[in-house]
């Protein structure tokens, strides 16, 4: 069916407000604007649709892995490596707890994200841009003008490595906690990469040695309560175009992963981080690790919002990592053929 409204005009009008989805609600919007409305077939795939279908495929359980005492030489190291291997090879999603990140840092980061997105729009607007060469910026939908449907989500993006931004470039509302949280994510990310390296039968430092850990981008997502969550979505179906994502989510939920044609909830677990394999790690592991499609549902819980902090690890020397001679996983008795082992 042909569109009955000027989509390009509405997209520009929304973008020009520099206030994001939060700005729509601040202006009194009570219905989802056309640019956010999913096509009917996509609406019917949402769990609150009366026409949603289910399958009889085996359900994927998102494992929660206790990583306590799994440092090099730790008593539980081999057990944890095996649990990580199973999860990475199956659905590519797992949660980790007892990870060493202090509770006050976790809670402080969520509160910092809330402070940024809920400060006066005039302050938020100072960071709103589509100049993606900046290390720190805020906007709604990075692909606003390319995607068919806009997502009900605003995002603050901070590139924290390989070069740390100047502290003054970070928003005052979350500056200190961003710096602290980023350091904890570096340590946790390096630790998870060690486990993944060993899960591939390689030296603990292997993935770090091929530069999988050099980049670090923190995406602070804000999903305002939606007046019509059956018409739109928080984040469309996608897989992550990185090596690894470590996700902190609040207690509202809404994250789902696709497995054997089913959408499986990734329930919030107090004190845990969600870890998922990215496209680049699937590729350089010869498809041994799986990067799975996932999405975030819009929520309609009163005045509440959903908060998610996604730390993505993106290698700097991608060309080297994609060179078959530097492939991360090769069975010792076989030469690399470019095919999954």
Question: What is the element layout, followed by pairings?
Answer:
Blueprint: H1 7-16, H2 20-26, H3 40-43, E1 64-66, H4 77-90, E2 93-97, H5 103-118, H6 121-124, E3 136-139, E4 154-161, H7 175-199, H8 206-209, E5 216-223, E6 235-238, E7 244-249, E8 255-259, E9 262-265, E10 273-277, H9 279-284, E11 294-296, E12 306-313, H10 318-322
Parallel strand pairs: 1-2
Antiparallel strand pairs: 2-10, 3-4, 4-5, 5-12, 6-11, 7-10, 7-12, 8-9, 8-11
Which descriptors would you attach to this protein?
341 residues; alpha+beta; 4-stranded antiparallel β-sheet; 12 strands; dioxygenase activity; Fe2OG dioxygenase domain-containing protein
* Mean of residue pLDDT values: 89
Q: Which bin fits the share of residues in helices? A: 25-40%
Topology, number of strands: 12
Shape: globular
Oligomeric state of the chains?
single chain
User: What is the chain-wise order of helices and strands?
Assistant: HHHEHEHHEEHHEEEEEEHEEH
DSSP helix count?
10
| Alpha-carbon distance between the two ends | 45 Å
Proportion in β-strands: 15-25%
Structural class: alpha+beta
Strand order of the largest sheet: 1-2-10-7-12-5-4-3
Low-confidence stretches: 49-57, 316-326, 331-341
- Rg over C-alpha atoms, rounded to the nearest angstrom: 20 Å
Q: Main beta sheet: strand number and arrangement?
A: 8 strands, mixed
Domain Fe2OG dioxygenase: 214-318
Family: Belongs to the iron/ascorbate-dependent oxidoreductase family.
Organism: Acorus calamus (Sweet flag)
GO molecular function, one term: dioxygenase activity
């Amino acid at each position: 069916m042909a569109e009955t409204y000027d989509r390009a005009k509405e997209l520009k009008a929304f973008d020009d407000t520099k206030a994001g989805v939060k700005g729509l609600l601040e202006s009194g919007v009570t219905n989802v604007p056309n640019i956010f409305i999913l096509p009917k077939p996509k609406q019917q795939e949402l769990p609150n649709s009366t026409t949603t279908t289910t399958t009889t495929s085996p359900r994927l359980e998102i494992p929660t892995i206790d990583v306590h005492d799994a440092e090099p030489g730790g008593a539980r190291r081999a057990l944890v490596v095996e649990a990580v291997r199973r999860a990475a090879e199956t659905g590519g999603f797992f949660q980790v707890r007892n990870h060493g990140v202090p509770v006050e840092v976790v809670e402080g980061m969520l509160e910092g994200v809330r402070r940024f997105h809920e400060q006066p729009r005039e302050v938020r607007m100072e960071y709103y841009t589509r100049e993606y060469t900046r290390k720190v910026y805020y906007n709604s939908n990075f692909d606003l003008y390319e995607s068919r449907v806009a997502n009900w989500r605003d995002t603050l993006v901070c590139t924290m490595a390989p070069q740390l931004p100047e502290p003054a470039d970070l928003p005052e509302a979350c500056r200190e906690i961003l710096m602290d949280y980023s350091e904890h994510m570096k340590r946790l990310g390096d630790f998870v990469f060690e486990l993944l390296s060993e899960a591939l039968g390689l030296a603990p430092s292997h993935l770090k040695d091929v530069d999988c850990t050099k980049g670090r981008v923190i995406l602070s997502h804000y999903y305002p309560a939606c007046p019509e969550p059956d018409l739109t979505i928080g984040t469309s179906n996608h897989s992550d175009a990185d090596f690894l994502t470590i996700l902190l989510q609040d207690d509202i939920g809404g994250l789902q992963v696709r497995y054997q044609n089913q959408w499986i909830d990734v329930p919030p677990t107090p004190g845990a981080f969600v870890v998922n394999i990215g496209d680049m790690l699937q590729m350089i592991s010869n498809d041994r690790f799986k990067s799975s499609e996932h999405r975030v549902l819009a929520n309609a819980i009163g005045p509440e919002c959903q908060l998610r902090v996604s730390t993505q690890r993106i290698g700097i020397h991608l060309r080297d990592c994609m060179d078959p001679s530097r492939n991360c996983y090769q069975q010792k008795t076989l030469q690399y053929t470019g095919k999954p082992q």
